[in-house]
Amino acid sequence: MPVTRASRKVTGHFWGRLADVSAGRPESAAVCSGASSSAASRGSSSWARSSSAKEYSNSSTAPVIAVTMASGPLQSALLRTASLATVTWGSLLGLQRHRRGCLQGRCLSAVVASSANAAEPQIVAANESSEHQPLPPLAALPAGTLNDKLVRRHDPVEHAPLKPQQLGPEQEEGPSTSPVADALISDLGDAQTLEDLLEVLQARIALGEEVSEEGMLVSVHKLCDFLGVRETKQGRWSALTLDKTFQEGALWQRSQSGAKVADILSAAATRAASRMAPARLACVIEGLAAAGAYNLALLRTAEKILEPHLEHMEKEVVATLVVAWAEAGLRPTHSFLEAAADTLLADLRSCNADTLTGTLLGYAKLGYCHDGLLDAVAKAVLSSLEGFTMCQLSYVLWSFSKLGVKHPQLVDDITVALLPKMSPKFAHSMTVSCWSLAALNHYDSMTGVLLDAVAEVLITNVADFQAKDISRLMWTYAELNHPHHRMVEAVLKYSVNHLHIFDASGLANIVWGAAKTDEAMDDNVARMLAGVGAEASQRIEEFAGLDMANLLSGYAHLRYFHSDLLKAVEEHMHRHLVNLPPRQLARLILSFARLNYSPRPALLQELAFFLTLNLPKMNGLSAVQAMWGIGVLEGLTVDMFNRFCACLANMDIQEFTVQNQMRLIDIEMMANQLGQSQAEQAALMLPDNVRGESLETTQAAVRYNSSLLTSLQREIMMCLLTMGVPYKVDAITANGCIKVDLAMCYHGKNLAIEVADRRRHSSNPPFHPMGKMVLRERVLEANGWRVIRVPSHEWESMRTLENKIKYMGNRLDTALLNGPAREPVSENDLKLEEIEPSVWKFWW
Fold first, then answer.
1. What are the respective helix, strand and coil percentages of the chain, to the nearest 5?
2. What is the C-alpha separation between 360 and 785, in angstroms, rounded?
3. Cα distance between residue 81 and residue 162, in whole Å
4. Which of 288, 310, 327, 404 is the most buried (most CB within 10 A)?
5. For residue 542, what are the contacts with CB-CB under 8 A and spacing of at least 6?
6. pLDDT digits (tens, 9 = 90+) for 132-162
7. Where is this region: Disordered (predicted)?
8. Is 122 helix (H, G, I), strand (E, B) or coil?
9. What sign does the CA torsion over 44, 48, 50, 52 have?
10. Domain 709-843 falls in which CATH fold?
11. Whole-number Å distance between alpha carbons of 685 and 21
């Protein structure tokens, strides 16, 4: 092993001290245990004159063994033997300080060294001479000197740790009973950087020695100090410090030296856990966790050791330990958590705000709902709200939301307490508070006031918020249906130029938040959607199922057709289709259908297969969404529809919204197209428990919408009047479920003019038709109608009435030539009489 910088520095100093010994100064001591003191002194001096300490201290090959000798004539040597790869600062400086502080009248008199190229160990002394002479072999020493006392250790790992020396009465005031441990503490105290700390611990490992309890505590303190994690008091770290460290990322990403130090200390603590005092073991675990190091082996070992002693520990320690286990993702045993809860419940009102918050935080992250503890903590928090910081209040809310426990009084009081604390420096805490309210589905007047206050802070200080906080706030406002257009506008302007700092979830939340706020399609929204689509297409592998579903749902809601994004989602979805949860599968199918994006036939076939397989696992909403989507994509099968009806038989129609009840009728109409005869169509019907009310709801909605006319419809009606073509504006299908915009019987053919305004097309060029309009046209064509679609962008491109008349004439003639996709099965559906020219004015 090469000699390190610290070892060279200390070795030179050590040999200088030995030069004083060999020069005959009063503190020199005997070397050999069987010879006279004068002979030993002369031998020591002669060796000093023929050797150079400086040369040996710079050697990287000759191991040395420091020997501490007792004073007095010919006393037995107290030999500390070790096969050293290098002389370290800890061992040498510790022995030197031990000689000065503890061993009054004793000294370091000799060092036994074994050369890498020599068969026998050598005794080395040092003086101030720069001359270098060969050292005498150990065999040349008088018999009975060191040969009988030297214990050679070839394998440092197998050697047992050194036991503390027994000191005499005159030595009781010394700083330590172990020179080696004392040296380690001193060496650790002198470390100025993480690299120094790592070097000291690695040198200790090279010696084959274990790190003492005191050494672990000092090292942990140094590690946290160098990483910028401050202690609340000596050996105590805040439970919220552990959480903050976890959020900043893995320790290895922040500091490789720190991670190596943590690994050494974790391994040492794991080996020594059974011998350590429980309080010290808990302190080591706390410190490592505060630094962001969570060693599962250490935690598993310590769990059984600490559990019987939890009742005797401080409540602050117990709370922090629970958080440490939670941050490590390792759930302790039921008995451990119950013991911790009992300790905390013993006198919870005396706990400070940090302990109360840490208690909730730990149990929430572990997903362990202890009703008695939660109630007691809630009461304690309510009685001392003024002592809680913004961060602590936010985590109290987060803990209850994470456990799904509603406590209205606590939430209301915390909401009021948060309002005076609004500030950009608490951006993360404000985000956590708002997110928690959304997770609890708690929305009242005070919640609205809080959301508005947070929005104002975000608008003026958007750059002070982290990307994750911005995206979570967008999700929160969308989830609580609390639109704040100025906040969304500020976020969109900021995010367009900073999309690279948002992760997959952040990109999805921005789009989803804008969609739920029903933002108008202006330049800011269009730029954001184009930018997010391009960014997400390149990083699609980062998107989980939920992120993809939220992202695509946002694009579908805003009717923004981004072909590159849709292709990327299709490929990514195809590769991970088997891992998609049923709900996310349903949302993705629905988004494809709403945007009228048809996947490749191979993927469509697999989507149909997995949908059929997962239908029993879906709730009513997801099942209806998925079935409507797969029908629009033309992937519906008879077997799938029958399975769907079997699932509907056990559902209550009250579970479905008006929109989903109308989708149920759409599904039935799409299923009817699969039948080749009226008998087959009659068999493909929804179950009675949902069909009756769904049909009534759909018919009522169609009747209401039939009286509404858009400006584009009025313009087309005026054009038809000018052309002398009669039409009807209140035509409804036989089942009363579809209202035709403009219907006519033209040259004996039923024509349906579908006025495709902007709502029925994508909001961006080239104005792709949406799935709902395509479905209407398909159903009408299946029933014998010839559909003429008049897109708004085409109509608006013709400036004059003459051009519009010419356009409509061409479309009517084309419709006569191109018949429907199939002839109607029923002759009674949508039959209109020939309209006489003298009658059409009545409808106008």
1. 60, 5, 35
2. 64
3. 10
4. 288
5. 503, 504
6. 344 333 333 333 333 333 333 333 333 333 3
7. 159-182
8. strand
9. positive
10. Endonuclease; Chain A (3.40.960)
11. 106
